[in-house]
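Support request, please re-run this one:
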Amino acid sequence: MKQLRKKYLKFMTNRNSIPFVLCFFIVLVSVQAQEYDSIPDTQIEPPETVVVADIEVKKDTVNTFKKIKLDGISAVVGDYLILDSDIDKTLIDLRSQGAAMDDITHCGLLGKLMEDRLYAHQAVQDSILVSDDEVNSTSDRQMQQLVQQVGSMEKVLKFYNKESVEDFREELYNINKLRMLSEKMQQKIISEIEVTPEEVRQFFNKIPEDEKPVFGAELEISQIVKIPEIPEEEKQKTINKLNEIKADCEDNDASFSVKAILYSQDPGSKSKGGFYSMTRETPFVKEFKDVAFSLRQGEISEPFETAFGYHIIYIEKIRGQELDLRHILLQPEIPQSSIDKARVELDTIRKQLMDGKYTFAEAALNFSDEKETKFDGGLLRNPINFDSHFELTKMDPSLYNQVRNLKDNEISQPTLEQDPNGGPPKYKILMVSNRYDEHEANFAQDYIKIQELALRDKQFTTIRKWLNDHISDTYVSVGGENRDCEFANKWVKE
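Re-run finished. Output below.
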């Protein structure tokens, strides 16, 4: 069981790190869920699917036919079945994508696909809903992404050997519907699981001494940020330009999409004519979502401001709780004088820190323009787990390059940094406030990491119990040679 837990957590960690496009390609050639029209007796192996190919053999004017087995059923779980060819195609695709195959076997992959179908089957039983709009919008986004990557819909259809867009959309619909049901069921199972400090302590104490995790060298980093000030006249120029674009679209039927391609400064949507599809859960800033969901279909917003600049939004289509929209982002020009002023201010702050006039935390609170860190002494938080420790081997390369040569409590020179998300540039100074060498897990020092491990362990245990309970009261049948597989779960019933 211990080895199973390690493999399961390792698989989950690796799966989360696969880029979206890779996941999509893997899933696309994976099993297509099919409804099983009639449920046979639970003690009877499912009938083998045999497709007969008519091969004419001429002999003395007598036509004879040879039966050729083209496919078979690997397993049935609830209302879903898995074909032999589905597993083979998935394994081939994993290899072609360069996935690590050491821990992936035919039996292991079949077991994982059966788990997904059990989650989806139970989600339907529990009335967990996935709307057609939600599924279709996901499929639309995937198709748009594929067209951009491959070049045209014709090439996409040829690549996936599909006769028409409708056939491709139907397959995507089935795959995404099953995946979403499976994910929602899993989320429901673990959604209310928490760990108390006492549970974390007990979890840590149960780890054998020779199995204690080892954490790599880590840093705690603090920073003070100055954002160059944008003159009001530059802001007004930007607003006027957006109003001009809005008027041209409304009064002269100019294409909003073309305007976005020509003028928008949003690198994520410019080439797509400013297009985004979003729900209220989409991780956009609050100001953007508030404006988007206040508009009617076909309406263009007034210019509004976010941390990234000034926007206008055009609502192209409303589908229930989902919006298809286009937007244009313009950023006011920042004069060199404002950039120079921010650098001089940071130079002054740095000298005052070196003279002992302030502590770094005091200076951050009083002078930093970055709201996310100033009230915490300028301390940066790891975006992965919100811990203050950054493991050197996992740090963002740009941040690593800025601090790698800093000694403890040394303050860097002012550094100009462009916002990777498209916001205005900023100057900052950094300090390594703590440094931790590679070490065996320490309960006090590494509490957040240990808490995360304890939570994963509790979630794993809950998932395994849920699977065991529902396998026993769900129709499951494993066919052919697959019955000899050593599954992690008891799929083969006596």
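Residues 308 and 423 are 4 Å apart (CA to CA). The chain is about 45% helix and 15% strand.
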